[in-house]
Specification:
Elements lengths: L1 H29 L8 H13 L3 H20 L1 H24 L7 H20 L8 H11 L5 H20 L2 H23 L4 E8 L2 H12 L4 E6 L6 E9 L4 H11 L4 E7 L13
Antiparallel strand pairs: 1-3, 1-4, 2-3
């Protein structure tokens, strides 16, 4: 119970700080200079510019049907966290818009600092097993039905449409170029903070509930699991060991999946210096 309380408090702290940092990026650097953060937030800033409707309210409304669909298709735990982050981020965007100064500065500076802060904010949220909703959930749902289409490609295509929309509304082609810089800075920083430049984690699980844990990891994390038959040297007892390779930010979700089915499972988490294969870095041609 104490561990769960401590974990939930840590989650909320990460989500709160991540939402604030992300909101500073949008309201202080990106939006005042006509630079898009991409995704649903990018669409929300465009509508805010045209109709003067608060960005957070638009973001929340857009996310409602996506979160409902995600709840049905992806499981309760992940979507509840993401719903909490969406509400927190929506509030943070609207409150910070009233409190923060809008720095209308050089486009390069705005896109670089906005992108860095955006990457830090999103990394804090992703590290605790949630997302900001929107395009991320849509991409995961499409990927579950069409495995040959990667989540990254779907998000990239969606961001391309948002950037084009941003350029049309602001009537400035340069804003699209600055948006690309901001997104590149943000994603590169996230790669380093979350993945350690192609690094990941290998999780070994010795359990009496292998099938339930496999299904849970497949369903909620979207990662494959390998089953290995093992024998305890001391007890001579036959057990099943699971091996799962994940990104750093997915470790927390795997731990939660294991605990739901076997709190006495033996777990070893080790570093993977480089991961090549489906869902990670592709083989060189």
């Amino acid at each position: 119970m104490k561990n769960n309380i401590r974990k939930n408090i840590t989650d909320v702290l990460y989500f709160f700080i991540g939402s604030i940092v992300y909101s500073v990026a949008v309201n202080m650097f990106l939006s005042p200079n006509g630079i898009s953060p991409g995704g649903f937030t990018g669409v929300a800033t465009v509508i805010n510019h045209v109709a003067n409707i608060p960005t957070g309210i638009i973001l929340f409304i857009f996310n409602i049907p996506v979160l409902i669909l995600g709840y049905i298709k992806m499981g309760k735990s992940f979507i509840l966290k993401t719903s909490f982050v969406t509400i927190l981020l929506s509030i943070s965007l609207d409150v910070s818009a009233r409190l923060l100064p809008q720095l209308q500065t050089d486009g390069i500076l705005a896109s670089m600092f906005g992108g860095i802060l955006m990457g830090i904010g999103l990394s804090l949220i992703l590290l605790r097993g949630a997302t900001t909703g929107g395009v991320d959930i849509i991409a995961k749902l499409i990927n579950k039905r069409h495995r040959h289409i990667s989540v990254g490609k779907i998000i990239l295509m969606a961001d391309g449409v948002v950037i084009a929309l941003n350029a049309v509304v602001y009537k400035n082609a340069e804003s699209a170029l600055y948006s690309i810089i901001a997104m590149y800075m943000g994603t590169r920083l996230m790669d380093v903070l979350l993945y350690g430049a192609d690094k990941g984690k290998i999780i070994y699980i010795v359990t009496n509930s292998p099938q339930e844990i496999c299904s849970e990891i497949n369903h909620t994390v979207g990662r494959g699991v390998t089953k290995l038959s093992v024998v305890g040297a001391y007890t001579g007892e036959s057990r099943t060991m699971l091996m799962c390779t994940v990104r750093v930010h997915e470790v927390s979700a795997v731990h939660n999946a294991i605990k739901r089915h076997d709190e006495k499972a033996f777990i070893v988490v080790t570093d993977a210096g480089e991961i090549i294969g489906e869902g990670f870095k592709m083989h060189n041609a």
